[in-house]
Amino acid sequence: MKRRAKLTLYLLLGVVTTALAQNEPFVFTPQWTAQAQFAGYYVAEAKGFYREAGVNVRIEHPTATQPAMSRLRKNQCQATTLQLCQAMEIVDDGIPLVNILQTSMNNAMVIVSARGKDPLTQKGAKVGIWSVGFGQLAICMSIKDHLNYEWIRFAQNINLFVAGALDAMLAMSYNEYYQLVQAGMELSDKNVYRFCDHGYNVQEDGVYMARDYYNKHRDQARKFAQASKKGWEWAAQHPEETLDIVMQYVDRDHIATNRVMQRLMLKDVLRLQVDRESKKREYRLRPDMVRQASQLMVDNQMLSREVTYEELISEK
After folding, report:
1. DSSP SS3 for 48
2. CB 55 within 8 A of CB 224
C-alpha cells in the first residue's frame, strides 16, 4: 500500500509540475508593430495551436522605448523575430542566439528611386534607411558598387521620400513598397532595385531566443516553433480568415493601416516563405545564405569575425 501511495504521489507531482510548466508565460515579441508580417503567430494564438502544444504564449509587441531586442536582453520576452543579418550582428556583439524557426526564405528589401531613375546610377544619392536597422545588405551593396550613398535615417513611414526630401529609400516589398503604391507612386523595374535578384538573396525573418534560455527550455522552444509553423500553414490555406485575425490585432493596438494593405502584405510575406529552388516552405536556415551574409558583412567591416551557421542553429 505504501509503495502504491508513493507511486500515486509521484504521478500527481509530475502532473502538477507539467501543468505549472505549461502555465508559465512564454512571451513572444515580434520585431515590429502589429501587421500581417506576423500573421502565423497571431493565428497560432487565436486558433489555440499554442495552447494545444502546451505552451502559454503571450504576444507583446515592442514600443518606441522598448524595441524587441531590448526586451529580449532584459528577459521581458523569451523569443523575438530578427532578420538574419541582425541576428549575426548581435551574436558578433557577444550575445549567443539560437534560431528556433526560420520563416523567410527570400530577401524582401528593395531600393525605390524617385523620378523614375535607376538606383544604380544615383551615386552619392540621399537614401532613406530605417533608424532601427534592417539595412545591412544595402550598406554592403553601396560600398561594393561604389555608390557612396548618403544614408538618411527615418523611423517608419514614407513621408520624407514622398515629399521629395530623398532621392531614394529602402523599402520592404511587403510593406513600404505597397505604401508607396497606395500613395500613387509609379513603380517599375526601372526605378526599383530588388536585392534578391542581384546576388543578395539573404534570408530575413526568423525566431530567435538567447542560447542560455534555449538550453534550459528546449522542449518549450520546440513546441512553440511547431505551433507557430502550424499557424503559418493555416494562414497560407485560409488567407481571408487570417486577415480577420490580423485586423483584430491591428485594431487592438490602434495601428494606422487598412485591410487592403494587410492583404497585400500577407500575400507577399507568404510568397517570400517559399524557397526559390525547392518551391516549398522549408522553415529552416540555409547554410549557404548564412555564409554569404557573414562574408559580405565581414568584408564590409560590419562583423569583426565570421558568424557561422553552427552558432545559430539549435542542434548544438
Report:
1. coil
2. yes
